[in-house]
Amino acid sequence: MKVLLVYPPFCTPTILPYSLASLKHFLQTNLNLEIDVLDLNAEFHKRKFAQYYKTIKETKTKEDYAEIFTHFDKESREVYAKNNREVLQGKNPEYFQEIFSLIKTEDYDIIACSLVYNSQCFYATAILKELQKQGIICLLGGPAAKGKVLEYGKLLKNEHEIIEFFTEKGIQAKQGDFYDSNNPLDFSDFKEENYLSKERIFPIKTSSTCFYKQCTFCTHFAKVPYKEYEIAWLENTLKINNAKYVFLIDDMLTKERLMAFAQISQNKIQWACQLRPTPDILGISKELYAGGLRSVSWGVESGSQRILDLMKKGTDIQKVPKVLKESHEAGIQNILYIMFAFPTETKEEFMETINFLEKNQAYIDLVCTSIFGLQHGAKAFESPQDYGIIEIKEKQRTVLEGSITYKIKQGLNNEEARVLQKKVQHRIDKINKIPKVFKCSREQTLLYQ
Ligand code: SF4
């Protein structure tokens, strides 16, 4: 049986698609299938933004590099919005015939569509509709496989369901090991010229999920047992791909894992990761820098201890500056995630966060802000009464899963937080040393050094 894995437009084409590489690896390891992959997102961008692909390779300074991304960001947002509108009106999006013809439906028994971002669901709808018309079996998977797209394919939620689906179709299962060091993750399907980046940046996951799993707003960790992948497997994965730049997409890493990765990277690889600013990681920043760590995205979230406790972030705001200072002094970029309008946050607590950022601005390179949103699966959704959340409603949307609205008993609502943020945005912007365009492609900060 021949299967094609596709990754539909739109998401930023600046990093290789981890979901396609790991899904192919999983299928090849566990089932007797012939598998091809097709990054249609990269194919779309290569056609639509050819000029950016050309100039990005020729840039000499980091300022020029950022400028190209700034223009690309503005233009691409308009292109995505226009195309999504076309899909909503029942029309085909740009390059549809050309992009669809790359699928070569006659060569495959099954097409599997990987949806990681909501922004992929519009173009995916157009592709899936056409595949359905042609009677092709479509499978869907990934965190954004929700809402209208489910009408056009069969959703497989986890590895168990994938194996079951294929074995029921008579495909023989294999006793492979995804993390066997002799079976490294291979990114060779993804050609360098298809990605909008001066260098190839590899997304690598070193563990199955976040080991902390407690933040009450969070839905993005996988609900599976925490498992650390073999160092030898990681080492071979880096080696066979000749990786020079790596973005560790783990939600969290332990101190021991950071040290282990620094050791195998031996400064031949420059890498970035995401962490909580807890004091247990103090004392290793210099060694991590020597082992290639160049950028950390810190889940700081708030400058108010009451809000951090309500979020169950497990951090102490008094100790966060020390963590940031040590990392900064070691030469590592500090990118901070900040979340406004967590339920019950007051105006004073909002301003505590702004004051925290300003007070520690010497150690901060970029601030990435968001406004809290209630999502299925988050602890705040499951026990809304603990957060003063009332009147939860779900509004149907045309393509995406329904959006959740709610009211709060006290504190700033999202609109009030937005207005307040607008007023203080100039103060946040002043803190940034890295251009804010890199908020949407944080892995690119590895090349802005
Ligand atoms: S926000 Fe990060 S640290 Fe907290 S539970 Fe989610 S993944 Fe884990």
Bound ligands, named by name, code or SMILES = iron/sulfur cluster
Q: Total number of helical segments? A: 15
Task: Report Rg.
Answer: 22 Å
- Assign the CATH architecture of the largest domain: Alpha-Beta Horseshoe
Category from helices, strands and their pairing: alpha/beta
Main beta sheet strand tally, sense and closure:
6 strands, parallel
**Briefly, what CATH class of the largest domain?**
Alpha Beta
CATH superfamily of the largest domain: tm_1862 like domain
Broad shape: globular
Strand content: 15-25%
Overall mean pLDDT score? Answer: 96
Strand order of the largest sheet: 6-7-8-9-10-11
Are there runs of 5+ residues with pLDDT below 50, and where?
none
Order of helices and strands: EHEHHHHEHEEHEHEHEHEHHEHEHEEH
Number of domains: 2
Helix content: 25-40%
How many angstroms separate the termini? 46 Å
Briefly note the CATH topology name of the largest domain. Answer: pyruvate-formate lyase- activating enzyme
- SS elements, strand count: 13
Write the SSE topology:
Layout: E1 2-7, H1 18-30, E2 34-39, H2 40-48, H3 50-58, H4 62-88, H5 96-101, E3 110-114, H6 121-133, E4 137-141, E5 154-155, H7 159-168, E6 201-204, H8 231-240, E7 245-248, H9 255-265, E8 270-275, H10 285-290, E9 293-301, H11 305-311, H12 320-329, E10 333-340, H13 347-359, E11 366-371, H14 379-382, E12 389-395, E13 403-408, H15 414-431
The structure holds iron/sulfur cluster (SF4).
Iron/sulfur cluster binds at residues 210, 212-215, 218, 220-221, 251-252, 276, 299.
